[in-house]
């Protein structure tokens, strides 16, 4: 089966798919994106991803003349054509192609819209969840509008590379006050000694994680004690449990932070419960 990619109205074979060399996404990272989990061939939490995409587009004044229903159709069709049962579907929108110049082009041409679907190896993620992952912490080098999901991901790329070199899976960024902001590509959570689940409140310093929102629903529905507040690296290192959330990994236990074991050094029971029950709370499309 040849992989197919959606590019500006057409489904193309993977090796023939491309955008213009003067696409503003390529030249300026002037583009936003979404990644949704595909679970049992269904797109998870599509309405929340769509709402966040619209927020990102609005904040950057990128005009996309494709409606919500059409976006949903394109994502579902890309998943279907690529026969993805478990994996992810990626949507990217850039300000389109224009002669290279910093200000927005006038008049603004059509946005570039790309959609790819990719199968994952569920057993690889299951193995990570079974053992738990280790993470390191680093100063947060990113800009002040992390609530916008842009493709300007070089700080995350470099951080992930350092994590890999250090034998870790993820980096949790830390603000100037020593408080954890979020992971390079995930939301950071800890469970305090009294079993209160803690995650940083939404602001322009973090991405409003879709998985975060669904896990908050889950925690509220199941009557867990919950606090949306900032926590320090020391709080994290001495936590009872720690975990991260993202569309690509749902809930993943963190068992080591900066080389220090968290709790007993194995995935915590509360984290595993959240992971096992996550899809009961997520919306399917
Ligand atoms: N924070 C950042 C910086 C991310 O890049 C991501 C996902 O890519 C997340 C958090 C988790 O967001 P979501 O749960 O919507 O995948």
Can you describe what's shown?
This protein has 285 residues and is of the alpha+beta class. The protein contains 8 helices and 15 strands. The strands form 2 sheets. Strands 7, 8, 9, 10, 11, 12, 13, 14 and 15 form a 9-stranded mixed sheet that branches. Helix 6 (210-221) packs across helix 8. The radius of gyration is 19 Å and the shape is globular. 39% of the residues are buried. The structure holds pyridoxal-5'-phosphate. Pyridoxal-5'-phosphate is lined by residues 35, 182-183, 185-187, 207, 209-212, 245-247.
List the helices and strands and how they pair.
Layout (H helix, E strand, L loop, with lengths): L3 E4 L2 E4 L10 H5 L2 E9 L2 E2 L2 H15 L7 H14 L5 E8 L17 E8 L2 H10 L1 E7 L14 H12 L4 E5 L5 E4 L3 E5 L5 E3 L10 H12 L4 E3 L4 H5 L3 E6 L3 E8 L2 E2 L7 H13 L4
Parallel strand pairs: 7-8, 7-14, 11-12
Antiparallel strand pairs: 1-2, 1-6, 3-4, 3-5, 5-6, 8-9, 10-11, 10-13, 13-14, 14-15
Helix pairs in contact: 6-8
This protein binds pyridoxal-5'-phosphate.
**What bound compounds does this protein have?**
pyridoxal-5'-phosphate
Count of DSSP H/I helices? 8
Q: Tell me how many strands there are.
A: 15
The value of Rg in angstroms is 19 Å
Shape: globular
What's the rounded overall pLDDT mean? 97
List SSEs in N-to-C order. Answer: EEHEEHHEEHEHEEEEHEHEEEH
How is the biggest beta sheet arranged? 9 strands, mixed
**What percent of residues adopt helix (DSSP H or I)?**
25-40%
N-end to C-end Cα span: 24 Å
Structural class by sheet pairing and helices: alpha+beta
Q: Name the poorly predicted regions.
A: none
Fraction in beta strands: 25-35%
